[in-house]
TrEMBL record:
It comes from Chryseobacterium oryctis. It is found in: Cell outer membrane. Residues 276-769 form the TonB-dependent receptor-like beta-barrel domain. Residues 49-160 form the TonB-dependent receptor plug domain. This is TonB-dependent receptor.
Length: 813
């Protein structure tokens, strides 16, 4: 590990000294002046940040380029109030807004492209919103809103809005091309071009990327492979414009899950035979699954396909000035997604091979009188110290979403009023087929067979496995969920004086959800006539004893929502550079996909199925100037009827309910010092999220909300060594958390440091970016499928990626 860190630091230093005397040309600052920035997200009309009564962070294309985030989640770490877990890889990560707990994903925020959702619900099962979005050079800017008016302008977004705004063409032909490589086999090409087909009338923009790499964690195969393309045409006329666009995403990404570590209080180190920074159970040696089904046929899956979404998006946007200060804008989009999802989910932690085989069943063992392990690959008898039971989870999802947002706006002397109708229909049809496999507890795992040598191979129960599979298709699901959203909203901006403004908004949601799921039964292959090896029947193995079989009977359900969300705010602009504001907002989050399944598949529906409601109060002070920005935003929030829906390794789902309370402060700033030699960007959050107002006697009352740090921040100083030469260091600090709501397992705090340099030669930019350069072991979560482990000794947890470096060349033309 030390050698890798030295290599990264030496690579950065070498690039510097090789170019220290190169030609000096001006290099853009990493940040444009916030005092001039205009925001559109969460506002009825574009307005300057200092005049917006919202907590909003903005990132221009240049800022995104110079941060060079390895994923969308890594970029969102720069937003205060968003606690982001980036350890899943490029996709499948988790974001928690202002201490609002969830099972993960993007459950209480909405991720948007150009003001419409990437998909209506960003927290469907195994369908995190970032699965369907990639950051590339076709992004013009990012606007990230916390709390505030999010519930007025989008559904299921009381935590905020994340709006990626894409580039459009202009009269001048412009483009950006980028090539990138890395220490982990990355080859990536980005291209974006835009211009005019007809001057002042018809404009185009086309952009996208293609990328392949081996992954920072060593999988033994191409961990990431694929790309996306975006294109749009915009026609401008005297009273408005019309735009059409298309996006195609076809990308394959490995999803990384918990690995074994050794924990001693706040100290972490690697488990024997497992590199904590580069190891993974998602390895080539266990990547193939091919098993017979109780209903006939075989089920085959390849782990190398990973999370593989195929996304097609077609959309249009139209704006027209109707006269008399009235304008109309309509945005519409259709999204079609076909996704195969394959991942290795550990079923608990490593087990001592001998004890696990021979211990009594009541003590967590298999109760074997004798045991023998052998490698599936070559049949060699082995004696591993530890073995690992792993879930081989395969999910297929077919999803589609039609959304239309029709909005009318009327401007008057003192402000404007906006009214809109939002319509969205979406469908998620999914099929699950899960098995458990047995492997060595190492970072290059091998499949194992386990037999009782005291028995004859023809005896019943001789083997616990079938080609390394312990539980063949132990879980199947065939479910469908549909949403039909019909929302009306009104927003008023009123300028009491030139300095004092008022904002109020209300949204009425009349939403319908329905779905169905197939009932299942259990079966085995004992009388199927099939054999395990061409000779012995399936009676000789227990691997098929509890196979899940889809039945012909379906359960149908429906659920309706009538909810009102609202917000009130005021902003006082003290002078050109200073402003204060206050806002109260009330919003909700409809039950998620797993919550519906839990409720309607249960025979004991004692806890009613309800939407999660939130109340938030925030006040803020903003100072924006040419050389210094700061925003300080204290906030308070409450949440009711939260349903935890983590899925455990046996296929059952957590069904815990809670209320929470949180208060905290978000800080965000930027400073340009010493005649632009030093630039410092910083953000941080201090909060105290607690479980509150629960039933009398609840063991959770007053506990800290799980997986939520009380303190986290990012600071990134940069030095403009010359006009062309720039170096930066980035430090992410993530405070101590608890993995579980009982506050039993501690997740220690950690600091991740990145560094890089860039050199601008005319229109060409050379850059080297290093991530986690000190190879820190930092865990973002434990094992949410393992209940409440003690947090001492052998634990399962998901660490951040090990040290890596990327080098890139970018040409602007």
């Amino acid at each position: 590990m030390k050698k890798r860190t030295i290599f990264l630091m030496a690579g950065v230093a070498t690039l510097y000294f090789n170019n220290a005397y190169a030609q000096e040309t001006p290099q853009d600052s990493t940040r444009s002046a916030s005092i001039e920035q205009v925001v559109i997200t969460g506002n009825s009309n574009p307005k300057k940040k200092i005049e917006s009564s919202t907590a909003i962070s903005t990132f221009s294309a240049k800022e995104i380029q110079k941060q060079n985030p390895i994923s969308a989640a890594a970029l969102l770490q720069r937003v205060p109030g968003f606690a982001v877990e980036t350890s899943g890889g490029e996709v499948g990560n988790n974001l928690f807004a202002r201490g609002i707990p969830s099972a993960g994903a993007y459950e209480f925020v909405q991720v948007q492209e150009d003001g419409l959702p990437v998909f209506e619900d960003g927290a469907l099962q195994f369908a995190n919103a970032d699965n369907f979005f990639r950051v590339d050079n076709s992004v013009s800017r990012l606007e990230a809103l916390r709390g505030g008016s999010g519930s007025i302008y989008a559904t299921n977004s009381p935590g905020g809005l994340i709006n990626f705004i894409t580039k459009e063409g202009g009269n001048d032909f412009k483009g950006t091309a980028k090539l990138e490589t890395s220490t982990y086999g990355l080859m990536r090409a980005d291209l974006n071009v835009g211009g005019a087909l007809v001057q002042d009338k018809l404009f185009f923009n086309v952009g996208g990327f293609y990328r392949t790499d081996d992954g920072i964690r060593k999988t033994g195969f191409k961990a990431n492979n694929g790309g996306q393309i975006r294109m749009n045409l915009k026609y401008g006329f005297d009273k408005g414009y019309a735009k059409v666009y298309y996006k195609k995403l076809d990308d394959r990404n490995t999803f990384f899950l918990p690995i074994p570590l050794l924990q001693d209080g706040d100290k972490l180190k690697g488990f024997q035979g497992f590199d904590p920074n580069y190891g993974t159970y998602s390895y080539r040696g266990i990547s193939q699954l091919n098993i017979p089904q109780a209903g006939g046929g075989f089920f085959s899956r390849n782990l190398e396909d990973g999370i593989h979404p195929k996304v097609d998006v077609l959309g249009a946007e139209f704006k027209y000035d109707l006269g008399s200060n009235i304008s109309v804008i309509n945005k519409t989009r259709y999204t079609d997604i076909n996704m195969n999802y394959t991942g290795i989910f550990p079923a608990g932690g490593p087990k001592n091979a001998a004890e696990w085989a021979t211990d009594a069943v009541k003590d967590g063992g298999l109760g074997m009188s004798n045991y023998q392990y052998s490698l599936v690959s070559n049949g060699a008898v082995v004696n591993p110290a530890y073995v690992q039971k792993l879930g081989f989870w395969a999910i297929d999802k077919q999803m589609n979403n039609f959304v239309n947002d029709l909005q009318f706006s009327y401007k008057f002397d003192k402000g404007n009023v906006t009214a809109g109708f939002y319509k969205s229909n979406w469908k998620s049809h999914q099929y699950w087929n899960w098995s458990n496999i047995l492997a060595t507890a190492t970072d290059r795992p091998e499949l194992l067979n386990l037999v009782n040598p005291d028995l004859d191979p023809t005896d019943i129960g001789y083997s616990k496995t079938y080609n390394g599979v312990m539980d063949m298709t132990f879980l199947q699901r065939d479910t469908q969920t549909q949403g039909s959203l019909n929302d009306l909203y009104v927003n008023l901006d009123y300028n009491v004086t030139d300095a004092l403004s008022f904002n109020g908004g209300i949204r009425y949601s009349h939403d319908f959800y329905k779905g169905n799921f197939a009932n299942t039964t259990n079966a085995n292959l004992n009388n199927s006539g099939l054999t395990t090896d061409g000779t012995h029947s399936f009676a000789t193995t227990t691997a098929d004893d509890n196979m899940s079989v889809l039945g012909g009977k379906y359960t149908y359900w429906n659920y309706n929502i009538d909810k009102v969300s609202y917000t009130l705010a005021t902003n006082y602009k003290i002078n050109r550079e200073n402003a204060v504001y206050a806002r109260f907002s009330h919003g909700f989050r409809s039950p998620n996909e797993e919550a519906y399944y839990n409720y309607f598949s249960s025979s004991n529906q004692t806890q009613p199925l309800e939407s999660v409601t939130t109340n938030q109060l925030e006040v803020g002070y903003k100072y924006y100037s040419r050389n210094f920005d700061v925003a300080v935003i204290p906030f308070y929030s409450t949440l009711k009827n939260l349903s935890f829906t983590d899925i455990f390794s046996d296929g059952t789902s957590e069904n815990t309910f809670a209320n929470t309370q949180n208060y905290g402060v978000e800080i965000e700033g930027f400073a340009r010092l010493f005649n632009n030699v030093l630039e410092v960007t910083f953000n941080g959050t201090i909060q105290n999220p607690k479980y509150k107002n629960l039933e009398a006697g609840s063991l959770l009352e007053g506990n800290t909300v799980r997986r939520m740090p009380k303190f986290y921040f990012n600071i990134s100083p940069a030095v403009n060594i010359t006009k062309s030469w720039r170096a930066y260091v980035s430090m992410n600090y993530y405070g101590k958390r608890f993995q579980d709501e009982m506050n039993v397992q501690t997740l220690p705090s950690f600091t991740e440091v990145g560094a890089g340099m860039s050199y601008q030669l005319g229109k060409i930019r050379f850059a080297v970016d290093g991530t986690n350069i000190f190879n820190t072991i930092g865990i973002t979560e434990g094992d949410p499928r393992a209940g409440s482990p003690s947090g001492e000794g052998i634990i399962m947890a998901r660490p951040i990626m090990g040290a890596a470096a990327r080098a890139s060349i970018t040409l602007d033309f």
